[in-house]
Specification:
binds magnesium ion; seven-stranded mixed sheet; binds 3,4-dihydroxybenzoic acid; binds S-adenosyl-L-homocysteine; globular; Rossmann fold; alpha/beta; about 20% strand; about 210 residues
Length: about 210
């Protein structure tokens, strides 16, 4: 998207308040990788979660908690975000971010590898946001479909994978995982899905049948 138009959306609809800005600056200060979602993407996720009245959400890939704060704020007071992070350093930064942003009571951070944690989770979830490693995305697709309620939302970041999805010369396992995930989401009759061209692409799907 045109950078000016993205900025227009962000300024009008997705301006960060002090708490979100603080999470972002903590993230930078701690030297975490600059791969968090953008504010306009956070607002899109927020709107979609509100549209399905999401109360129980699963996130894979917490990093410093920035997307988690956007998600937690879309939940009702009794809502819950379960977020999974493999890196203990990232998890520690995220815990402080959730406390500082005042959403710690709504967030359950599971430190561990997604494929180890997923079998412990009890359905149903109203939404799943996939933003961890890309290699295992085909497995995450199956887990998501198992954990989501009918009418639930499947969201996946980096659906374009920096353009690699349309570059046949890009052979990385990450690119393979994203391409395969997108294909699964497009073809599965239980899902109505598309990719929204925000930042690096957000795949959005609704589970329309069991
Ligand atoms: N959602 C975050 C960004 C996530 S970056 C945001 O927008 O704010 C990806 C994160 O996934 C990193 O913190 C990385 O450590 C974590 N990760 C990578 N592979 C993982 C795995 N297999 N299980 C759990 N977390 C994983
Ligand atoms: C990468 C991963 C992400 O989740 C992201 O949003 C941007 C970049 C990466 O692995 O490079
Ligand atoms: Mg991402």
């Amino acid at each position: 998207m045109d950078e000016r138009l993205a900025r227009y959306i962000t300024e009008l609809f997705a301006a960060e308040d002090d708490a979100l800005a603080a999470v972002r600056s903590r993230h930078a200060r701690e030297g975490l990788p600059d791969i968090l979602i953008s504010a306009d993407e956070g607002k899109l996720i927020h709107v979609l979660l509100r549209a399905v009245r999401a109360a129980r959400v699963l996130e894979l890939g917490t990093l410093g908690g920035y997307s988690g704060v956007w998600i937690a704020r879309a939940l009702p007071p009794e809502g819950r975000l379960v977020t999974v992070e493999r890196d203990p350093r990232h998890a520690a930064v995220a815990r402080r971010a959730f406390a500082e942003a005042g959403v710690a009571d709504r967030v359950e951070l599971r430190q561990g590898t997604a494929l180890d944690v997923l079998p412990q989770l009890v359905p149903p979830f109203d939404a799943v946001f996939l933003d961890a490693d890309k290699e295992n995305l085909p497995a995450y697709f199956d887990w998501s479909m198992r954990l989501l309620r009918t009418g639930g939302l499947l969201l996946c970041d980096n659906a374009f994978f920096a353009g690699a999805v349309v570059d046949p010369a890009e052979p990385s396992t990450g690119a393979h995982g994203v391409r395969e995930f997108n294909r699964l989401a497009a073809a599965d009759p239980r899902l109505a899905a598309t990719i929204v061209p925000v930042r690096d692409g957000l795949l959005v799907g609704v589970k329309v049948a069991d």
